[in-house]
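Could someone model flavin mononucleotide with this protein?
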Amino acid sequence: MAEITSPERITLFSPYKMANFNLSHRVVLAPMTRCRALNGIPGPALAEYYTQRSTQGGFLITEGTLVSNTAAGFPHVPGIYKEEQVEAWKKIVDAVHAKGSIIFCQLWHVGRASHQVYQPSGGSPISSTNKPISNRWRILLPDGSYGTYPKPRALETYEIRDVVEDYRRAAINAIRAGFDGIEIHGAHGYLLDQFLKDGINDRTDEYGGSIDNRCKFIMQVVEAVASAIGASRVGVRISPAIDHLDAMDSDPLGLGLAVVERLNKLQLKQRSQLTYLHVTQPRYTAYGQTESGRPGSDEEEAHLIRTLRKNYEGTFMCSGGFTRELGMQALADGDADLVSYGRLFISNPDLVLRFKLNAPLTKYNRKTFYTQDPVVGYTDYPFLSNASGRSRL
Ligand SMILES: Cc1cc2nc3c(=O)[nH]c(=O)nc-3n(C[C@H](O)[C@H](O)[C@H](O)COP(=O)(O)O)c2cc1C
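Reply:
Sure, complex below.
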């Protein structure tokens, strides 16, 4: 009688082929702004931070990296639009590659989540709208104080193509710096999300109104970048159900599906899949500011994520509030191919090993998330001293 073998359960330590990359495990470093790139130039501190989190066959996504000189909304965020930045990133990418990891650069423009102090000549930040972010949210200023978000300036229709071009050039720069690919940050209330969400986008031109129009900007960016560097080196991040920085939509599932449908079509047109789609779990609305998100997975959000996962034709990555157990569960249930970890990876540089050993985790210190010290709260979190365990990866 033929023996029936159950398929092997997929875990965080099952290998995965992501586009042309062979990953040895599925614990991904989530993109995280850490404000340590002094004056926009990534230096040795970043090399240390990223190599600490590198593993053979691992996958890292950098912090949001600025595509132009109007893109910043935090102090000391690295850019990838100047030659000096490209040269500086090369050293970091080389160091990560030497440790065996794959690394993508997250391309970022904050749009209205900025302030005149971050803008060239003190101008107004750009957005889909003239409406500012409400007082519920505060912006971190270069002197460490918090301010209110100013009134942005809605981009003129003809200006949008220049911003698309900024993304395209930044993607080419990232490849020139040696990155394995890029992630387009279309999430969390920043520029591309400001066009996607009907709670923000009040435009009357071809970039506002219908879902089709609201998706236009991000799709133009994805298409321009994919055409320039190849779809298989492009990941896309969205957060249809996250209200971070007032980014509300009246129909998060409909919006998420609309993006998924368009990405699927683009993949057909380009005859290549994108590297992945990265979706933030709704439960972590206020990840940057508070602990108000709750771990766990209630029915509504599970439905949203599962529906997007089911409809997207390609690699699907989840992020937001995952513990080791929830990550294992999501993979075993087929809800994701990869899981990205943020805060736990801040305070556990050897998170992959700790998960493997099911070892205790170090708690992160929120107060040093966005400070500038190149070591404290950045590269001084402890590794497990268990050397025999370390050799297992
Ligand atoms: C300090 C900090 C900075 C972050 N910066 C970014 C960023 O630059 N780009 C981005 O897409 N998400 C950013 N995030 C969100 C993370 O990628 C991640 O989705 C979030 O922390 C939830 O995952 P976690 O529960 O594992 O921390 C940031 C989160 C934190 C805590």
